[in-house]
Specification:
single chain; 158 residues; alpha+beta; Ubiquitin-like (UB roll); DNA polymerase, domain 1; 2 domains; five-stranded mixed β-sheet; 32% helix; globular; binds FE2/S2 (inorganic) cluster
């Protein structure tokens, strides 16, 4: 059993695994009890398991724990608190952009990362950026999510 030290949502944790290739997602769910990243496909094809590793979105279902040892991990709930959501989360709430919410780690974390690096990005630019990586939503809420990301890009939440 090896120990992998990292920071998850601001807290220093020691994740343990027999296999260094254990997916980060499994350990986040089993040992840290995160609720944001979800198991969707397990193949890197949907984005439901997205987390930020050192500020960049990764698919935790296909990320081996050994490859993120020492990293700073932020999950969807680590962006802010339920009482004080992050502005991008507030925009998703105001646009009722989630239906079931299962997929939402992907659109929010990929969208936030792109917009933070490209403030004022247009709807088309956001769509093009997010279109480069599969982000699947079985509730078909993509358009409302895009509306929310455009608001966030404009510095608005509603
Ligand atoms: Fe990781 Fe689908 S569960 S990309
Ligand atoms: Fe249900 Fe996207 S809101 S899967």
């Amino acid at each position: 059993m090896a120990v992998y030290k990292m920071t998850v949502n601001g807290v220093s944790v020691n994740l343990t695994a027999d296999d260094p290739n254990t997916p980060l997602l499994y350990l986040l769910q089993e040992q840290v009890q995160t609720s944001g990243p979800k198991f969707g496909c397990g193949l890197g094809q949907c984005g439901a398991c997205t987390v930020l590793a050192n500020g960049q979105p990764i698919r935790s279902c296909i990320t081996n724990v050994v490859d993120v040892a020492g990293a700073t991990i932020t999950t969807l709930e680590g962006l802010a608190t339920p009482a004080g959501p992050h502005p991008v989360q507030q925009a998703f709430i105001s646009q009722q952009a989630m239906q079931c919410g299962y997929c939402v780690s992907g659109p929010i974390l990929y969208g936030k990362t792109f917009i933070d690096a490209n403030p004022g990005a247009t709807r088309e630019q956001i769509l093009n950026a997010l279109g480069k990586t599969p982000l699947l939503c079985r509730c078909h809420a993509h358009n409302r999510m895009l509306d929310a990301l455009v608001l966030y890009s404009q510095g608005k939440t509603q």
